[in-house]
Amino acid sequence: MPVVMSMRWAGVTPQQYDAVRGIVNWEGDTPAGGLFHVSWFDSEGLRATDLWESAADFERFARERLMPGVQQVGISGEPQVEITEAHAVFAPGFAG
Asked: Which CATH code is given to the segment(s) 3-85?
């Protein structure tokens, strides 16, 4: 069963997120094990939820691709990340 990654990153703006998205290019060069990503913003900053084949897949992506992009953009602080095993996955409108 895959894992769910939940992230909160206070202070990150939509402009910073979009800049990292362009640098890392996870949509054009899908990372190994990446199954699903959704992001949004609340009054504190970035929120994201991902579905990964394994925690190791997410950790490798974060180390090798995501964090170098974050550093290029100059985002400060550390995200709060929680990784848990998925119990069930249902996405009828997603034809990934």
From this structure: 3.30.70.100
